[in-house]
Design a protein that fits this description.
The protein is mostly helical. The protein has helices spanning 2-32, 38-61, 63-74, 80-85, 89-106.
């Protein structure tokens, strides 16, 4: 119904703003400075692209989760990468593969 569409729009905005966009920006800036296999870059991009609708679907099914997760990330209580990794096993694997590379780049 109409309420569900409004909820979906709200969570699409909330999660895109506080989860998807920051993770995307973080990875893009971090990956610029280091050599990362193209396959891993593609996996991470796929994760961001596919993860967004999965997270929105979960938030619509469980609005309390969507709200607490979105706000938790907004106030930096929850890690956006962890939320995105939770969207699918493939996403978790892609982020796990790239995280050590990013941590190495910070030192």
């Amino acid at each position: 119904g109409k309420g569900r569409t409004m909820l979906q729009d709200f969570f699409t905005w909330l999660l895109a703003t506080f989860v998807i966009a920051p993770v995307q920006a973080e990875f893009e800036s971090a990956l610029r400075g280091i050599e990362v296999p193209a396959a891993i870059v593609q996996q991470v991009q796929g994760c961001v692209t596919d993860g967004a609708p999965a997270l929105v679907a979960r938030a619509v099914e469980d609005p309390w989760w969507g709200l607490t997760t979105g706000l938790g990330v907004a106030i930096r209580m929850t890690d956006a990468t962890t939320v995105l990794a939770g969207s699918s096993p493939a996403c978790a694997a892609a982020l796990a593969a790239v995280t050590p590379l990013l941590n190495g780049a910070e030192t």
